[in-house]
Design brief:
Length: 412
């Protein structure tokens, strides 16, 4: 009987070799030969590209270049490298001895492949430690302390005029909100993400004072009542500071982090989600255009990670989010989900937040409250394509879906 295997997962390949009863030493030798990668390199000199192609051919792989790179009619070309991990490892050794910037390329290529293969992350969030790996998806529960959430779940929407006075009356916390958060944790949320300002398309910013009144009393109370890390969804440094002072251990910043915010995150040794957004909530959906969507987002996040580390944030506390729905069209959102695995090159956990968003509504022709099944589908695809954390409103439905998916993925 002949089987053609579709897997490229190293753990699955290891299990196959073990099933065949290959010697353990032999497995370590053969596994890199079984792991295939396609690597695209943009805009290198044709001289370097031709050397690269010859070196790869000598190892049994190949490199696709533009026709004009071979005829001498072009000065630069993009390349597509096709090889096993073993061949890439030998290639980098050979390139280290080459001119025309190929020694530097060898270093970058090696770092990129190492980052891409990283499949386990240990997040140190103060008194909480989270392990993220294939088969163990983390669910972040959305708690919108706003009256105008796009998803219709703003927890202040149904409060009485007395409760809404000053948004949250000084010194009081609506029990309905506390109950809601506790239920989320009971249902399986691994992180609670508290937000006091709507970031829906067209949303107007609110004052720091109002955001503090909405979020800090809740954080103070639930930090004593729940056994799950609390994240503050804000781009305002003062809100982040007070949230971290009162029990939060993570900052979820839609603006990708700035100097002031970074200093606060560093000081408190907090976790941080760095997200990509084109424009701001008021303007982000006004015809967003990209020359190369995935390349631009990866470049943005890579730079943001480097800056965060330079500002004193431990790299191991950083999570990246490509920003589904933030300055993206329907097509952009779908492309991000389809090509999400490419963000693994950043070497950090990937968070995705497709929950109830308008791109699902456009596909399903359904309102926010009717997008649960669409949300579940998007989350399954995201995790299958490399997401470590999904940020959602509907904990029970997504938790069940993740349990089934992870049970299948954990079969060896």
């Amino acid at each position: 009987m002949i089987h053609i295997l579709e897997t490229r997962d190293p753990q699955d390949l290891r299990q196959i070799l073990q099933d065949i009863k290959v010697d353990p030493y032999g497995i370590e030798i053969m596994l890199p030969k079984a792991v295939q990668h396609l690597v695209r390199i943009n805009s290198i000199s044709c001289i370097a590209a031709n050397i690269l192609k010859q070196e790869m051919l000598s190892l049994g792989g190949d490199v696709a270049v533009a026709r004009n790179a071979l005829t001498g009619k072009a000065r630069k070309t993009d390349c597509l490298l096709m090889a096993t991990l073993s061949q890439f490892n030998r290639l980098t050794e050979k390139l280290n001895r080459q001119p025309f910037g190929l020694d530097r390329l060898a270093h970058d290529l090696s770092d990129s492949l190492t980052s891409y293969q990283k499949d386990e992350f240990n997040l140190d969030l103060g008194r909480y430690k989270l392990t993220l790996r294939q088969g163990k998806t983390c669910i972040m529960g959305v708690v919108n302390l706003t009256p105008d959430s796009f998803s219709g779940d703003g927890l202040y929407k149904g409060l009485s005029p007395t409760e809404l006075k000053g948004t949250v009356p000084k010194g009081t916390v609506p029990e309905s909100v506390v109950d809601f958060v506790e239920r989320m944790v009971d249902d399986g949320a691994d992180i609670i993400d508290i937000g006091g300002e709507s970031t829906r398309p067209g949303a107007e910013p609110i004052l720091v004072k109002e955001e503090l009144e909405r979020t800090i009393p809740i954080i103070k109370k639930i930090a004593r009542k729940i056994k799950a890390p609390i994240s503050i969804d804000t781009y305002k440094p003062e809100v982040a500071r007070q949230a971290l002072d009162n029990g939060a251990v993570m900052v979820n910043d839609i603006t990708g982090l700035n100097n002031k915010m970074a200093k606060i995150v560093s000081k408190y040794k907090a976790g941080v989600v760095i997200m990509h957004m084109k424009g701001n909530p008021r303007t982000m959906q006004n015809n967003p255009v990209y020359k190369s969507l995935i390349d631009e987002i990866i470049e943005y996040l890579d730079k943001a990670i480097s800056e965060a580390v330079a500002w004193g944030i431990d790299r191991e506390r950083i999570i990246v989010d490509p920003g589904i729905g933030f300055g993206k069209t329907l097509g952009h959102n779908l492309e991000i989900l389809k090509r999400l695995r490419e963000f693994k090159i950043l070497g950090r956990p990937i968070l995705v937040g497709p929950s109830r968003k308008s791109f699902l509504g456009k596909i399903l022709n359904a309102g926010p409250q009717e997008r649960i099944f669409g949300t579940v589908s998007a989350c399954i695809l995201a995790v299958k394509n490399g997401a470590n954390i999904v940020r959602v409103h509907d904990i029970v439905a997504v938790k069940q879906a993740m349990k089934v998916l992870n049970t299948i993925n954990n079969i060896r």
